[in-house]
Structure formats: C-alpha cells, structure tokens
Amino acid sequence: MKTIDTEQSAEPEGRRSIGARRNPDSAEAILEAAEAVLLESGYAGFSIEAVARRARAGKPTIYRWWPSKAALLLDVYRRQKGDVGHPDTGSLEEDLYQLARSLFTLWRDTPAGPIFRSIIAEAQSDAKAAEALADYGAERRRHSGRMTERAIARGEARPDANPKVVADLVSSYAWTHLLTNRLDEDDDTLRAAIRTIVRGVLA
Amino acid sequence: MKTIDTEQSAEPEGRRSIGARRNPDSAEAILEAAEAVLLESGYAGFSIEAVARRARAGKPTIYRWWPSKAALLLDVYRRQKGDVGHPDTGSLEEDLYQLARSLFTLWRDTPAGPIFRSIIAEAQSDAKAAEALADYGAERRRHSGRMTERAIARGEARPDANPKVVADLVSSYAWTHLLTNRLDEDDDTLRAAIRTIVRGVLA
DNA sequence: CTCCATCGATACGATACGTTCCGTTATATA
DNA sequence: TATATAACGGAACGTATCGTATCGATGGAG
Q1: pLDDT in tens, B69-97
Q2: Nearest nucleotide to B55, CA against C1' atoms
Q3: Mutating which of B124, B148, B166, B181 best tests the A interface, going by the most A Cβ atoms within 10 A?
Q4: 3-state secondary structure of B172
Q5: In this structure, how many other beta carbons lie within 10 angstroms of the beta carbon of residue B86?
Q6: Residue B83 dihedral angles phi and psi, to the nearest 5°
Q7: Residue of B114, B112, B132, B136 lying closest to B123 (CA atoms)
Q8: For A83-199, which CATH superfamily applies?
Q9: What are phi and psi for residue A157, nearest 5 degrees?
Q10: Is the four-CA dihedral B112, B115, B120, B123 of positive or negative sign?
Q11: Does A9 lie at the interface with B, CB-CB under 8 angstroms?
C-alpha cells in the first residue's frame, strides 16, 4: 500500500527542520485512538478532532505527522491488518475459497473491515487516497494471482486463464460484500461463487 | 431503488399540512443543479449549499423535500440512469458481456457513474443510504439473474448454477472497477472476466 | 544550564450541515 | 376580484469539522 506521505521524507523543510523526531508514544496513542474511534463510531464519526480527544492529544500534533485524514486512515489499516494467508492446497478452488473466506472473516471480525471501508469511502473524495488504494489493489491482485499461476503450472487450469482476472473477480466479490454489509454470507453461497469462477456454469 | 423519504408520504403532519404541493419547476431545477455540481466537482464538492447556489434556491427549499444528502443523491441517480439493457442473445456469455459492457460504458460516459460512486460513498456513513443501496443491489441481482435462468432453461448452463451468484459476480466486478477508476478496461480483459465466470478456468 | 523540538491546549477562519425566521410570490378557493 | 394558504428565495443562526497559528510547558542533548 502506498504511503501517501506518512513518514514525511527526511527534511520537510516546513519549519526549522533541524531534527524532526517523532514521539513514538504519542504517535502510537494517536493510532490506537483512531482505531478505537473507527470501531466505535464508524466512518461517520471518524474526525481528526474525535481522534485527538480520545488520544488526549492536540490536533496540531496529528497534523504534524499525518497530512490528511486519508494518510492517518491508511496508517491505521497497515498497523493491524493480519494479512490474510495465501494457502497452497493443491486445489485452485480450495485455495481461492480459503482466501475469500479469510478475507470475509478478517473484515467481519476485526477492525480491518470498518477501516478498509473507510479508506474506500475516503478514496471517493480524496485523490491521494484513491491512488494509494489503486496501488494497493494492484499489488493484491498480483499477489493472489499466484494461486492461478500455480494451477496453470500444475496443469489444473487452462494455460490461457488470466490470473489477474481471477484475482480481480474474487477480490471484487469480497469488496462489494464488505461495502454492502454482506460479510455474513453463508458458506454455501461463498463456495458457489468460487466454484463459478473456477468451473464456470456451462452444462 | 428504495425511496428513503423523498415523496414525503401524503400528510407530513409537520406544519399545518393542509396541502403540501411541491413546485415542479423548483424541484427540477434543484435536481438539475445537483447533477451539474456532481459532474463538475464530484462527490467532494457535492454540498447542499453548492446545489442551492447553483439552482438559485434556498437551502430550506431543498431540506423541505429531501431529508438528507443521500435522498437527493438517490433522486438524482434515478432521474437519469439510462437503465442498461438486459439482452437475450441466446448465449449466456454474450448476454453477460453486453450487460457488463453497457454498465461500464454508462458509468464511464454519463453522469450515472460519478453519481453512483457518490451514493456508494454516502452509504458508508449514512444508514439510510446503505439500506437503499442494499435494496437496489438485491433487485438488480434478481433482475440480471434472469439471464442465467434462461441459460439453465435452454440447457446451456448447469441446473445447479446459481443465477444470483452469477449476477453478483458480474456486478461486483463492475462496482469495484467503478470505485477504483478502472472503467476504461480494454475489451479483451472484460471478455476474459466474463468468460471466466461462464466457462471457468479449469483445463 | 541552555537550547530547541515536541507536546497539549486554545483560538482562529473557513466551510458545511440542518434549522429558524422573514418578506415575497404564486396558486387555489370563494 | 379578493382573500387565504403555502411554497419560495434569502439571510442568519448554532453546531461541527477542517486545517492552521500561537502559546507556555516539558524534557532530552550538548
């Protein structure tokens, strides 16, 4: 995931800039507060001021280290996402199912879900968040495309199958279910979706 | 699509409520202004005040007829979406491709795209917009599920294929491409995505 | 001890939300 | 035609948030 500006590369040249040393305790408290606010009030209640109040920090301190709400959001996400596994079971359908299921579970049962939703929402009105999100998505598709590549290599999938397209279909399915509160989908339906991608629907 | 509260059913009982007659010219001007603002400035610039300025209307006039930004957004979308066709070519793959292509084109070349993005964004922080969006999505999946139902009936698709899942996969793919600025996807890739759903990737 | 960067706190201008009031205009009824 | 009714545009309000500016206090480094 792209960094936007978080680490404020070396010399911001903004103030006197002799030594910009960030207080780790303060930054950590802010990130924790941001996560807590996001979890309790969702994207609607996520404001810099709410985060500052909760962290007992000053707003300027937040703005000193994060140039925008989007940057803070991305840092919060990066800080705690449990990076879903990319299993290698020997069966493409099983691999993709486990990928999708762990995404659904992660997003439903951990702060990662609300946080990721917030980033997507923010990206609809913040160009930098949009770019970061696009980079992140492309990297994820490349990564989970490996599953299909392996299936092609072992002769399970057709050589002309498009790994990125397969990854795109799976992650698109997960995204829209996240965005429309459908992460509680029953296992049969999720399996049917993955089976459709792998086997198709033709008679 | 659910109406939220737009038409303010009959007797609002809010004021004296003898006859609440809406001025069609005014309402039309507001909807046109909202569409124009959305097109020019996107979701970021879409504010009630901006719409009121552009329509030369008073804010209270807007709030009288639309209870929230989300309601106005939904009305704008409903007013001008060209309702993509649901072709019946005799081939499921061709039907789904044409559905997806017309969705991509509609969203890329008309105001419907930015407007729909805005509704999705709004739904992430407005419960009523979220519910309306969920209803709309369910109705769309039911509707485009007909394509797969026909394919099953004519023996093209397996009887155990799940029409709603197929529709969900196609629309999810379109949604995420809308949300991540990838509506300009080349035809080969879009066809590959549809082909994957219909035929799968197995050797 | 003396710098000096960071800190929390507070205040600020700007923008937007949603509401209230006011004076005007248009329409329906008598 | 005359009157009542209600929607209208406009202005202002109080609240909330954004992002910035300024302050005195704290604490580590030389």
Answers
A1: 888 888 888 887 667 778 999 999 999 99
A2: D9
A3: B124
A4: helix
A5: 13
A6: 35, 95
A7: B132
A8: Tetracycline Repressor, domain 2 (1.10.357.10)
A9: -105, 160
A10: negative
A11: no
User: Contact B173/A171, CB-based, under 8 Å?
Assistant: no
A83-92, B8-17, B140-149, range with the lowest pLDDT: B8-17
Using CA atoms, how far apart are residues B29 and B50, in angstroms rounded to an integer? 13
Closest nt to residue A65, judged CA to C1':
C6
Structure tokens at A197: 């991608």
Place of tokens 């879409």: B46
- Write the ipTM: 0.83
- Give burial (CB, 10 Å; 0-12/13-18/19+) of A45: exposed
> DSSP letter string over A98-141?
HHHHHHHHHHHHSTHHHHHHHHHHHHTT-HHHHHHHHHHHHHHH
From chain A residues 135-164, the ones with a CB under 8 A of any chain B CB are 137, 148, 151, 155-159, 161-162
Residues A104-128, mean pLDDT to the nearest whole number: 89
Helix axes B187-199, B163-179, angle to 10 degrees: 160
State which CATH number among 2.60.40.2250, 1.10.10.60, 1.20.120.330, 3.90.650.10 fits the domain covering A24-79. 1.10.10.60
Instruction: Find tokens 């490349």 and name the residue.
Output: A142
- Amino acid type, B45: G
Q: Which two tokens stand for residue A56?
A: 């007992």
Residue B9 has pLDDT above 70, yes or no: no
Q: Which residue has the tokens 């035929």?
A: B199
Which residue has 């994957």 as its token pair?
Answer: B196
Establish whether domains A24-79 and A83-199 are of one fold: no
Q: How many CB atoms lie within 10 A of CB A178?
A: 20
- The residue extents of the domains of chain A are 24-79, 83-199
